[in-house]
Amino acid sequence: MSSILIVDDEKNIRRSLEMILSAEDYKIFSAENGKEALNIIHDQAIDLVFLDLLMPEMNGIDVLKQIKNYEPEVVVVMMSGHGTIENAVEAVKLGAYDFIEKPLTKEKVVITANNVFEKISLRSENRSLRSEISKKFEMVGRSEPVIAIKKQIEKIAPTTVRALILGESGTGKELIARAIHDQSPRKNKPFIKVNCAAIPEDLIESELFGAVKGAYTGSVADREGKFSQAHTGTIFLDEVGDMSLKVQAKVLRVLQEGEFEKVGGTKTIKVDVRVIAATNKDLKAEVEKNTFREDLYFRLNVVPIFMPPLRERKDDIPVLIDYFLKQICDETGSRPKKFTDEAMSALVRYAWPGNIRELRNLVERVMILSSDEKIDVADLPPVVLEKNVPVKSINSGKSLKNLKEDVEKTYIIQALERNGWNVTKAAGELGIERTNLHKKLKYYNITSDSISEE
Question: Rg of the chain's alpha carbons, rounded to an integer?
Answer without folding.
Answer: 26
